[in-house]
Amino acid sequence: MIIAVIGDSSCSTEEAKLAKTVGELLAQHDATIICGGLSGVMEAVCRGAKSEGGLTIGVLPGEDSSMANPWVDIPIATGVGYARNMAVVKSAQAVIAIGGNYGTLSEIAYALKRGIPVIGLNTWSLARNGQDDNSIIRVNSAAEAVDKAIALAKRHKGHEIAPRSSS
Amino acid sequence: MIIAVIGDSSCSTEEAKLAKTVGELLAQHDATIICGGLSGVMEAVCRGAKSEGGLTIGVLPGEDSSMANPWVDIPIATGVGYARNMAVVKSAQAVIAIGGNYGTLSEIAYALKRGIPVIGLNTWSLARNGQDDNSIIRVNSAAEAVDKAIALAKRHKGHEIAPRSSS
Amino acid sequence: MIIAVIGDSSCSTEEAKLAKTVGELLAQHDATIICGGLSGVMEAVCRGAKSEGGLTIGVLPGEDSSMANPWVDIPIATGVGYARNMAVVKSAQAVIAIGGNYGTLSEIAYALKRGIPVIGLNTWSLARNGQDDNSIIRVNSAAEAVDKAIALAKRHKGHEIAPRSSS
Amino acid sequence: MIIAVIGDSSCSTEEAKLAKTVGELLAQHDATIICGGLSGVMEAVCRGAKSEGGLTIGVLPGEDSSMANPWVDIPIATGVGYARNMAVVKSAQAVIAIGGNYGTLSEIAYALKRGIPVIGLNTWSLARNGQDDNSIIRVNSAAEAVDKAIALAKRHKGHEIAPRSSS
User: How far apart are CA C29 and CA A125, in angstroms?
Assistant: First the structure.
């Protein structure tokens, strides 16, 4: 199971703490983490995941794998700039958004367009032509975010990561 | 001056009417129109612009220029899927959003991230962590949208389209 | 009719001269030119086209339209890096390659994959597993390149640019 | 260390056999494999790698992870079409090309442009303006390809995959 965690490259201490806990919990549930591979929320979630032996993928905007934060196991250097935002969410069976700026908003939009569930922690809320759009599932804690993400990812049709028993 | 007009490939009669009028007015102001090149709002704005002798660019997701609506003068077949949403707005000095679904939301996000002014007609509204984000400039008519877009585009640093006196 | 002209951002005086003549001739035949929008061959072909009142499109790798050379009428700021190479050729009904480095080679590859005719002036030649691949149509002058490109573009199924009688 | 293996989605039995052996040998050397995630050479190399307990990444053109071949551990659904060819090679420290059509040629071009070493097995050869371009390092066996790729990848500046001791 691959869960995307999205958020800004610069974030508050509180957001970083949330992201780190999300990373720890996802790793404890054997979920692979995919993110944008840079700093802020992306770095915190990877750091948390690695502290629990998880696997982390960083999908980078640039051409240089060495731009990935040090907690990324698998850097994907796309070279397509912020079009990589699309790849981050479409590779996942569920998305957890923590805080976030306009880049995160574009990722939320791509996920919802594709029907991938988005769980939100202190993130964007949306209204369309005066009516609330409640597609983002709001939660209040890292634990709740991870529980929802994993439950929804199981229901969402997607690629099952092959067991890597011999690695 | 290039103005992006964004909105859904399927839209209400009212939205199509708004988009057509926006296209007519932009063409009367000698603004080039860039859009996603498909149906709905994109087709209506191109149709309006062509009725007033304007120039229309359609930035397509696929590999086939013939997918453009018949009112597109210059189809750009990007082949990069919905990453083309980024190209639509970044090529413009201002953006007019009419209605719109999640694809339009991703375009609004990319424009705001890049600091390109977004004028909204019956479109998304945003709040972040409980606080309204008023970056989208709300207007109530096609005329107001075009006036704002042109005024803001003039202030926005961007490429000046070369005069095409001899064409 | 849209013809792509591809080549390196730094080129020899001879290549620049060839590119300028190609631009002049394409404009005389009312062909719209699409290119990568930067310097070298791209700038020379746009300059030639503008001297004959042609229309030029520059599909840029970055997010900033002002990076286009001064002879580009319509800059498309894709933001997708060298993935824009794909958009340059797929938007055209024929491609003229002048000299060129590895970026040009990627454009030739994308065009041939899509079945778009490629005419070559002092450019790459290809062999596969020891056998010559003669898909690139070799010519020896700017005039021959333009004649071939226009003849082949007419046969290649593609979008007909709408007449812009009133612009 | 990440090594890209590139080749066509439809390939000869001999190419599939070569690719499978390349996958086995890379996995035995603890190299992670990145490829385009589809059939043909891509499937054969993943299959070989998995038979030796390796880790495989498939960078897909579409939006749907389930399009990956069954031997892909980590499918990246980019949604950017054949712009994903760029991501396949730029994420690697060396590239092994087996046979291949124009898509493979675009990947070779992107790798050489970026200075990433390309090792070729029965693949394209290049000449520029009449002069051979010997940038592709030709080898005659799967073992030689893997030895060269690993030796060159070690010299090529790139991201060191973090140890995954606990996975």
Answer: 53
Contact list in A for residue B98 (CB cut-off 8 A) is: none
Which of D73, D76, D159 comes nearest A164 by C-beta?
D73
pLDDT of B167 > 60? The answer is: no
Is pLDDT above 50 for C19? yes
Query: B117 forms bridges with which residues in the sheet?
Result: none
> Is residue B79 within 8 angstroms of chain D, CB to CB?
yes
| Cβ–Cβ below 8 Å for A79 and C79 | no
Query: Model ipTM?
Result: 0.93
Q: In C, which residues are within 8 Å of A63 by CB distance?
A: 81
B157 pLDDT band (50/70/90 cuts)?
A: low
What is the distance in angstroms between the Cα of B142 and the nearest Cα belonging to chain C? 22
Rounded to whole angstroms, the Cα distance separating C45 from B109 reads 35
**Measuring CA to CA, which residue among A167, A55, A162, A53 is closest to residue D28?**
A167
3 state SS of B124: strand
Q: What is chain A's mean pLDDT, rounded?
A: 94
Asked if A72's CB is within 8 angstroms of D159's CB, the reply is yes
Distances from the Cα of B118 to the Cα of B132, B145, C43, angstroms: 16, 10, 32
Which of A54, A161, A165 lies at the smallest CB-CB distance from D74? Answer: A161
Rg (CA), chain C: 15
Alpha helices in D29-83 (DSSP H): 41-51
Angle of CA points C150, C156, C157, to nearest 5°: 135
Residue the block writes with tokens 């597993």:
C129
Helix H segments across B29-126?
Answer: 41-51, 84-90, 102-114
Residues of A in contact with B123 (CB under 8 A): 128-129
pLDDT digits (tens, 9 = 90+) for C42-100: 999 999 999 999 999 999 999 999 999 999 999 999 999 999 999 999 999 999 999 99
